[in-house]
Structure formats: structure tokens, C-alpha cells
Specification:
Blueprint lengths: L2 H7 L6 H49 L7 H11 L3 E6 L2 E7 L8 E4 L5 H12 L6 E7 L7 E7 H54 L16 H54 L5 H22 L15 E4 H11 L8 E7 L4 E4 L1 H20 L6 E10 L2 E8 L6 H5 L17 H11 L3 E5 L5 E8 L5 H9 L1
Parallel strand pairs: 3-4, 7-9
Antiparallel strand pairs: 1-2, 1-5, 4-5, 6-8, 9-10, 10-12, 11-12
Helix pairs in contact: 2-3, 2-4, 2-5, 5-6, 6-7, 8-9, 9-11
Length: 482
């Protein structure tokens, strides 16, 4: 196992789960702080309002009694019951002290409940929480109905602070339990929905990298309909395409290696055959004189192909050596090379415009038409009757020369049509290599032309379109002057 693969298999120190937990905890704590701050401020305000409400009740009792009729002992009991040191009320321009007990020499803090803002409530709560000793607070609030302008009550701060501490402790304990449960639930949900699928995707990528040619390493997508499900399905399709592509590349590499091994010996054998065919040219037999040139041209093409090792195995085809040639002689030579001249089962029909010329490399055009014709002949011979018709038409449409090769065979299945011009993909017959149409398409593209399957015809019809090369006007003028 390589170091690179070992590093991929070892889990990281801070994986996605740890990062998710570290992200969830602060967010939950921030939420708890956001809940605690207004809660403690609201608790203090409510406690102060409770003191004012109790003072309002005491003020009603004390204010209803005639002046001086309330004994000091009773006033002290009333103040002790509401937790206050003194209660006063302002009526008009006068401030009346309704009851007093152990009045301190100074007031440490004034709290006006009539116009308290939200920020003042928060700062006051934390000021009370972090204060020390027993300070004295004067609380000012609205007076009882029709009894005065405002009511004042003097209380000790220590009981309020102790109550706030108890409330904070209980709130923190409850919040801590809620935070732990919330964090666990959020973490579990996110881990199930995101972390685990991401780990599965990561594991699939690591395993696929270790053996990209094994179909067993392709991830099996789940039935999820969200983005992760889409990612799984796209990753599965991508891995399958890569597996198929790598198999094709391996097959091409093996084929190229095999051909390179036999290329040298085969070229020597063909050269010997060419020497023998040269001697046949001197035989006076008319039939030998007729077929010897064709045999020599076939051997020359075979030697040229062997010298290029394998046309499709190279990075690209050699650039076409284009010139204006007649189409009909090339078609006739294709018929002879395909052994269709003496085949009674296959009818050969040509409909080529008289004198049709094409601007192309004649050898490459011959290879294209020979591949198309051989495919058509094999399709016809695969039928039960073993026969049919091959038709070649040629015409010109403006600056484009068009040649069509059609047959009356069974046509191409849908599976072969999907990757028709890709190597090893368009094979629809046993024994085929799947290279013929790929080579033909590459040769036609080198001419800036197009090779395509014509839909809606009987059997299969392939159309070759080759445009003429643009001609420089200056060259044409020079030719006319010459």
C-alpha cells in the first residue's frame, strides 16, 4: 500500500464529525446566553414590580387611616411583610412618608420603573448580580389610582440578589440539560443526514482511486432525493463511465502492443508479396494483366498501413493530402476490393452524377468507403437470405460533395446507435472490432467534413459530406493570368 493511499485511509485528527460538534456547541451556548440575559433582566423587573404592588397595597391601608392613627409597631409589621424599609407617596407638591422602619442614612441606587428601557433592565440586573454587601434601593413607580403622582418604596438589595442567584442557578441547570439534549439531537441529526453520507462518498472515492478499473468499487447510490442523493447518483455515473473508458483504453493499449509486435514481420511479408506481384505484371495472361495492378495497389495500401502501425492507434491520422479527384473510379475500386463484383447475392447499384469531382485525399476516401461498404455487406450476409442491395449515390450541393452508402439490411440496433462512432462501442455483430466507423469518422473530420447516419431509411444509410477547400482569390487570378 502506497503512502498516498495510506494517508487517505487514515481518518483525520479533526474529521467532519469533530468539526460539526465544535460548531454545534458554541451555537447552542450562544442560544442559551441569548435566553439567559433577557430572562434574568425580566426576573429582576418582575421582583421590583412585586415590591411596588405590595407597597401599593400597604399604601392604600396606611393612607386610609387618619394621620397618626397607625401605631409604629403595626407599620413595622406591614413593612416587614412587604420586605421594605419605608413607603412614601407624592401627592401634588407634597411627599408623604406613610411608614418607615430602620431608615438608612443614604440611598445607594434609584430605580424608576415608570420609564425603564430594555437596556437599563439588562445592565441593572447584572449590576445587582455582581454587587457586594447590602445596598439600599429606592424603587419609584406609579401611585395607586387617584392617590398621588408616584409611589416610593425603599428595600434592601441583598434579598433581591440572593433570589436572582437562585433563579440563575436553576435556569443554568435547566438550560444545561436542554443544551446537552439539543446538542446531542442536532449532532445526531446532522451526522445522520450529512456526515455519514459524506463519509460514504469519501470512502467510495478512496476505494475507487485504489482500483479504478474494478466495477465493484463503483458506489451504489441511495434513494435520497436531496443534493446528496444527486451527488451519489452523479458520482456513480461518473465512476461507471471512467471504468468503461479505462477498459477501452486498456483494450486499445493491448491492441497497439500486439500490432507493434507483428508490424515488422508483417511488413516484410507484404514487401515479399509486392515483389511477387511485380513479376505477375510480365505474365501475358489477360486476366493476370487485369488483376495485377489492383493487387499491387492493395499491397501498397497494406504496406502503408503497416508503416503507421495502426491508424487508430496513433494519436491522430496523418493530414489528408487533398486534391480534386473523380468519385466514380474510387467507388469502382471499392467494389472490387470488397469482392462484390462477382457476388450474385448482393446487388450493386450506383447513382453518381456524371463527372462528379471531390476535393479529398483519394486513399483516405477509399478507406472510408471501403469500411462503409464492408459493413453493409456484412449486414446483408447476416440476414437469413444472405443477400440484398448496396446502393452508392453521389451528388454535389454547392461547394459540398455528398456520397451516401446505403443497404437493405436489418439496420442498426438502438444500443449501437448510442456510441456509433466511438471505438469498440458501435459493434453490433459478432467478430466486429468496432473500429471501422471510428476510423472513417476521424478521416472525414480531417477533411472538415461530416459522417452521419441518416435516419428513417430502410436498412442503414451513411452520408459522407466533404466541403471543398476555400480558394484564395489571388491564386485564382494568378492562374488566369498564366
Amino acid at each position: 500500500m502506497t503512502d498516498r493511499l495510506r494517508r487517505r485511509l487514515v481518518p483525520p485528527r479533526f474529521g467532519l464529525s469533530a468539526k460539526l460538534l465544535l460548531l454545534t456547541l458554541p451555537l447552542v451556548l450562544i442560544a442559551e446566553v441569548a435566553i439567559y440575559v433577557p430572562s434574568i433582566a425580566n426576573y429582576r423587573v418582575n421582583r421590583l414590580n412585586d415590591r411596588l404592588a405590595a407597597a401599593n397595597t400597604a399604601a392604600l391601608v396606611l393612607n386610609a387611616a387618619p394621620s397618626g392613627m397607625v401605631p409604629d409597631s403595626l407599620a413595622r409589621e406591614i413593612l416587614s411583610s412587604i420586605g421594605a424599609r419605608a413607603v412614601a407617596i407624592k401627592t401634588g407638591q407634597q411627599r408623604r412618608l406613610l411608614a418607615i422602619a430602620d431608615m438608612p442614612p443614604a440611598i445607594d441606587e434609584d430605580v424608576d420603573m415608570r420609564d425603564m428601557t430594555y437596556w437599563e433592565a439588562i445592565t441593572g440586573a447584572f449590576t445587582t448580580m455582581f454587587s457586594t454587601g447590602n445596598q439600599v434601593i429606592r424603587i419609584v413607580g406609579p401611585a395607586p389610582r387617584n392617590r398621588g403622582q408616584f409611589l416610593e418604596v425603599v428595600v434592601d438589595e441583598k434579598p433581591l440578589r440572593l433570589a436572582m442567584v437562585r433563579f440563575s442557578r436553576n435556569l443554568v441547570l435547566v438550560s444545561l440539560v436542554i443544551a446537552i439534549l439539543t446538542t446531542a439531537l442536532v449532532y445526531a441529526a446532522l451526522h445522520y443526514l450529512f456526515v455519514r453520507p459524506m463519509r460514504r462518498l469519501t470512502a467510495s472515492l478512496v476505494a475507487f482511486h485504489a482500483d479504478p478499473e474494478s466495477p465493484s468499487r463503483v458506489i451504489v447510490p441511495s434513494d435520497r432525493g436531496d443534493e446528496i442523493g444527486v451527488a451519489e447518483r452523479e458520482l456513480s455515473d461518473l465512476q461507471r463511465d471512467l471504468v468503461s473508458m479505462l477498459h477501452q483504453k486498456s483494450r486499445l493499449a493491448a491492441l497497439g502492443l500486439a500490432v507493434s509486435k507483428i508490424n515488422h514481420d508483417l511488413r516484410n511479408l507484404l514487401a515479399s508479396s509486392q515483389l511477387i506481384s511485380d513479376q505477375l505484371a510480365h505474365v501475358p495472361d489477360p486476366r493476370v494483366q487485369r488483376f495485377a495492378p489492383k493487387l499491387m495497389r492493395s499491397l501498397e495500401r497494406a504496406i502503408a498501413l503497416c508503416q503507421s502501425t495502426l491508424s487508430y492507434g496513433r494519436a491522430q491520422e496523418a493530414p489528408p493530402e487533398r486534391r480534386v479527384v473523380a468519385v466514380e473510379p474510387i467507388v469502382t475500386e471499392v467494389r472490387d476490393s470488397a469482392n462484390l463484383a462477382d457476388d450474385p447475392a448482393i446487388a450493386w447499384v450506383t447513382a453518381i452524377d456524371r463527372g462528379l469531382l471531390i476535393d479529398a485525399d483519394p486513399d483516405q476516401l477509399f478507406r472510408v468507403l471501403l469500411n462503409l461498404v464492408r459493413n453493409a455487406a456484412q449486414a446483408l450476409r447476416s440476414e437469413d437470405g444472405g443477400g440484398g442491395q448496396i446502393r452508392i449515390t453521389g451528388r454535389r450541393e454547392g461547394a459540398v460533395a455528398i456520397i451516401e452508402v446505403s443497404d437493405t439490411g436489418p439496420g442498426l440496433p438502438a444500443k449501437a446507435r448510442e456510441h456509433l462512432f466511438e471505438p469498440f462501442q458501435g459493434v453490433s455483430r459478432d467478430g466486429g472490432t468496432g473500429l471501422g466507423l471510428a476510423i472513417a469518422s476521424e478521416l472525414i473530420r480531417a477533411h472538415d467534413g461530416e459522417l452521419k447516419l441518416v435516419e428513417g431509411t430502410i436498412g442503414a444509410t451513411f452520408r459522407v459530406s466533404i466541403p471543398d477547400r476555400p480558394v484564395e482569390l489571388q491564386t485564382v487570378r494568378s492562374a488566369k493570368r498564366a
